[in-house]
Amino acid sequence: MPCVASTHRAGAVISVCLFRLKGLFLASDIQQLRQAIEECKQVILELPEQSDKQKDAVVRLIHLRLKLQELKDPHEDEPNMRIILEHRFYKEKSKSVKQVCDKCSTFIWGLIQTWYTCTGCYYRCHSKCLNLITKPCVRSKVSHQSEYELTICPEAGLDSQDYRCAECRAPISLRAVPSEARQCDYTGQYYCSNCHWNDLAVIPARVIHNWDFEPRKVSRCSMRYLALMLGRPVLKLREINPLLFNYVEELVEIRKLRQDILLMKPYFITCKEAMEARLLLQLQDRQHFVENDDMYSLQDLLDVSSGRLGASLTDIHTMFAKHIKLDCERCQAKGFVCELCKEGDILFPFDSHTSVCQDCAAVFHRDCYYDNSTSCPRCMRLNLRKQTQEPAEGTWQQ
Asked: Which residues contact 14 (CB under 8 A, 6 or more apart)?
């Protein structure tokens, strides 16, 4: 027969354990829950084996662990940055914005799922999908191959791809069995629905050859590549399609404005006031405009088509001309007097009614320059000075 005292002690222990369990189950923060789980484990060890009360305690332990999982920050154990296939993935902090995973094509629920974004190409995916990625970062392609496909939809046929997706190599078919084949208007290749989401983009080849800005369906990879290339000045229009300037008047106007700005640049880089005012930074978003007059980005052509570029460039041209001709005495002093007629106002090479000597850069009235039957007066003067200096130098050497 068991001792009555020991039976009472066992009952008291069970009561204490159950009381502790009720208190632990009310824990509300992570620290309290972790402490509650450890104490619950201890309570389970103190209760009789296989007893109903021990089973209840085990159930409560499970609930405590589930509650801890709900409260625990899902990002806590994930690294902030991962590098995979040249992608630089950073852990996102936004939990309210619903995104789509570029790997599995399902929604990313920021409240309960960890997700990453590549800072190079903006590829988004779940944390669980990171190690499944097979697509290299598109930015690396932009860095190594900064040029467009300039053939309009260069289709080779689905059979040339062995009836497989051009990117992930999944089986595809025009009959959508086993998967629908979707053509990318930029590459001309076919992709599966996981690699081609029917995104729309303006195709550079169609713009250059047909001045056609209608967006067409492209693959995800092509969409990212075109987005990263949008502002890069890699299109030399006069070599690719010189006839475009015959049909698009706006391009002729833009080219003239750009040529004038290049003529104004030497005034600014030798003018202290212009450097302090940072006038050339007006074109910091289109740095190539102060370097040459023949390279264009796709964004430039989009802005030409919409009229935005012509308006903004005209305003900048007016501001630059005002500084040189009216506001700055140093720049005014670098103007020219027409040496053919010796009349009229001070001339500058970017004035619309002037012509510039290709040899010495002297500026004349256009009418005077074309009516002149002799050589450029400045060139003649420079040549004469050169001839008079050469004999003197030869005499000194002897």
From this structure: 47, 48, 53
Helix (H) or strand (E) holding 396: helix 377-397
Phi and psi for 355 in degrees, rounded to 5? -130, 150
Rounded Cα gap, residues 72 and 30, in angstroms = 7
Whether pTM exceeds 0.85: no
Q: String of b and e for 12-21 (b: at least 16 CB within 10 Å)?
A: eebeebbebb
CA angle 171, 173, 177 (to 5 degrees): 85
Amino acid identity for residue 96 in this structure: S
Kindly state the helix (H) or strand (E) to which residue 88 belongs, with its residue range. strand 87-91
Phi, psi of 218 (to 5 degrees): -135, 160
Hey, what are 223's tokens? 């969409």
Count CB atoms within 10 A of the CB of residue 67: 17
Residue 130 is classified by DSSP as G
In this predicted model, which residue has the larger pLDDT, 72 or 349?
Answer: 349
Q: Is 344 left (phi over 0), alpha (psi -120 to 50) or beta?
A: left
pLDDT of 84-125, one tens digit each? 888 889 888 766 667 888 888 888 887 777 888 898 888 888
pLDDT digit string (tens) for 339-352?
888 887 889 989 88
Q: What are the C-alpha distances in Å from 388 to residues 173, 374, 376, 397?
A: 82, 21, 19, 15
* 323-381 pLDDT tens trace: 999 999 999 998 888 888 888 788 998 988 888 888 888 888 888 888 776 678 888 88
Structure tokens at 294: 């023949």
Residues in contact with 102: Cβ distance below 8 Å, sequence separation at least 6, in sequence order? 123, 124, 125, 220
- Continuous segment of H or E residues that includes residue 310: helix 308-322
- Report DSSP state, residue 336: B
The token pair at 237 is: 């229009």
Tokens coding 9: 């002690």
Between CA 322 and CA 332 the distance in angstroms is 10
Q: How many CA atoms are closer than 13 Å to the CA of 33, on its beta-carbon side?
A: 16
Single out the residue of 261, 284, 276 nearest to residue 330, CA to CA.
276
Q: What is the pLDDT of residues 219-253, one digit of tens each?
A: 999 999 999 999 999 999 999 999 999 999 999 99
Q: Which uninterrupted H or E stretch holds 369?
A: helix 366-371
